[in-house]
Design a protein that fits this description.
Blueprint lengths: L1 E3 L6 H4 L1 H10 L1 E6 L2 E9 L7 E6 L3 H4 L10 E6 L14 H15 L4 E8 L7 H15 L5 E6 L4 H6 L8 H16 L4 E4 L19 H8 L1 E3 L3 H7 L32 H9 L17 E4 L6 E6 L2
Parallel strand pairs: 1-4, 3-10, 4-5, 5-6, 6-7, 7-8
Antiparallel strand pairs: 2-3, 9-11
Protein name: DUF1848 domain-containing protein
Organism: Gallibacter intestinalis
Pfam families: DUF1848 (PF08902)
Length: about 300
């Protein structure tokens, strides 16, 4: 079973105490975001979890807990951008986040970490020249601590346009120019550029367009092959045109406190604040507690590991 924590919120940054309580309890409950009365109960034990996948902008609160997670295979996707507080008002100082990333990499290993430079957008302050300078500087700091960087361009969801006035998409020509430069810069530091849900034709510029959390990447982090039935692949690949295995997410939308203007997982700041007040670190649910009207079902347990084939 693959457990993902990072597509709906940032559990390591804001809910590490809750997450470790769930690890110690051996299970977690998750509301269906589209049918809230339906709750799925997932086991959280090493015997059935092939890999824990984390997505965060700040891994620091989880570093002290890593010794408790050694029985689990892990994959960490850490988003670190060069944007300032005008765009990411509550993300910690980026120098500290980079330091935390490097500490994380030293513990879990370079095959289990990925740096995300995402999303890329353009405006008067954050123009093409800014991105090239910033990306080059950051690659220098990441050298030896990661061998890949995931790059994705901003998608203008309705909530993004509502919360981030004046933002525009990056044109195809601008995307090609930036990817070409990024690939050239990253290669000098032993880093491969991976695109996430972008035009496959960017491959001709040297980018890996196969996805940021696909089966091969997770196998590399695990150290063994994952034998996933086709029926399960369709359930785990929840985004059209994406090869990444992002199903079984235990997070909840409208709960991330970073306040990034481009966020697609939060509706607005008032909704987030209201949900955070309902958070109980002792609850099996991230937000609130199960009620008598809820329907709780056990998740289907599928163990995918194939220990006969070692991944190099």
């Amino acid at each position: 079973m693959i457990i993902n924590t990072g597509n709906r919120t940032d559990i390591p940054a804001f809910y590490s105490r809750w997450f470790m309580n769930r690890i110690r309890a051996g299970y977690v409950m998750v509301r269906n975001p589209y049918a809230p009365q339906n709750i799925t109960k997932y086991p959280l034990v090493p015997d059935v979890i092939d890999i824990l996948c984390f997505g965060t902008k700040n891994p620091e609160p989880m570093l002290k807990h890593l010794s408790e997670l050694t029985a689990y295979h892990q994959f960490w996707s850490v988003t670190i951008t060069p944007y300032d507080k005008d765009i990411e008002p509550h993300v910690p100082d980026k120098t500290k986040v980079i330091d935390s990333f490097c500490k994380l990499s030293s513990v879990v290993g370079i095959k289990s970490v990925s740096w995300r430079y995402d999303p890329v957008f353009l405006n008067e302050r954050y123009d093409i020249d800014f991105h090239i300078r910033a990306f080059s500087s950051m690659c220098t700091k990441f050298e030896g601590n990661t061998d890949n960087c995931v790059v994705s361009f901003i998608d203008l969801y309705e909530k993004t346009k509502r919360n981030f006035h004046g933002i525009r998409e990056v044109s195809h020509n601008e995307q090609e120019f930036l990817i070409e430069k990024f690939v050239e810069i990253a290669a000098k530091h032993g880093i491969k550029v991976i695109t996430c849900c972008e035009d496959p034709k960017l491959a001709f510029l040297g980018a890996d367009v196969s996805g940021c959390m696909n089966k091969i990447i997770l196998e590399r982090a695990c150290g063994f092959s994952l034998d996933i039935p086709q029926s399960s692949l369709s359930r785990l690949m929840t985004r059209e045109g994406c090869n990444c295995l992002i199903g079984n997410d235990i997070g909840a939308y409208n709960t991330c406190g970073h306040g990034c203007l481009y966020c697609y997982a939060n509706y607005d700041s008032k909704t987030v604040a209201a949900n955070i007040k309902k958070h109980d670190p002792e609850s099996p649910l991230l937000i609130g507690r199960p009620g008598p009207e809820d329907i709780i079902r056990d998740a289907r347990i599928e163990v995918y590991r194939d220990l006969q084939i070692k991944w190099l």
